[in-house]
Structure formats: structure tokens, C-alpha cells
# Entry
Amino acid sequence: MIRKEQMQKQMMTVLKQMGFEVELINMNHLNHNDDVVPQVTKDDPHFFLIDQINQLFKNQPRKFGFYGFDPYGDNITQSPIWVRPRSLMVDHVRKYKFVVGHTTVTKIKPLSYNEEKEKFWLIDALGTSGEYLIIEDGEFKVYRCFVEEYL
# Structure
């Protein structure tokens, strides 16, 4: 059984990170452009993306600023936090599935890119449909919570 103190320590560790991964499921809102993850690393099957991203955030936090020409961040050269899902789909580490927040959607559903089926899950839907995502035994399940309408 997890104690309250252990849970608080884990939460503080997670909150200081850009994201985390479980069994090749990458949970964050990150671009993995060559400035952050070199191509040679992207192709390495033993490479753990989140370890490198979190280390970079710790050592060089300015790499996570807003860059580029598109004011909405929809460019593969955008920094990891600001990139939009469409650009992430074009430039990503192929071995991962991505669970992405910070982009509001009306409904949680898997998105595919080319031959990669159910590769991207945009999950910021609590304020719209009230949906949330649970991953159990590697299976993605969408649930709906009670959403109270305010007058």
C-alpha cells in the first residue's frame, strides 16, 4: 500500500518534469525536433525519450521557450512545450504512442498518422465532453465524468 508521504514525493517528482512514459506510451505535449532529440537518438531502440527530455529541461530550460514563426506553434521547429499536435504528428519518435494534453478537444479519440494506427491521443476534454483517458493493461479506455452545467 502506498503511503501519503510516498505519494506526495512521487507527485513532486512528476510535477518537476516535462512528462513521463510507461511501456512506450509517452505522456506529455512535446515535440521531439532535432534540436531536442537528434535523429541518431530517435532511431535507437534502447533510447528513452522522456529521460532525455526531463534532463534537458533540468539543465537547459530555455530550450522550452516559444520559438518559430507560427504564432500558434504549429511548426516542427517549435520548442517541445509549444508544438501543436499536427506538427507533432509529422515529427515524432516512431516507437512511441503519444498521450497529449494542453490542446482542447471536444472528444477523446485516437488519431492516426500515415500507417501508424491509434498513435496519438489528445486528451484535454474534461472542460468539453467531460471525458478522460485511463490506460489499463496497455489498453486505452475513455470514460466520462459528471460535468455540471453552470448557469
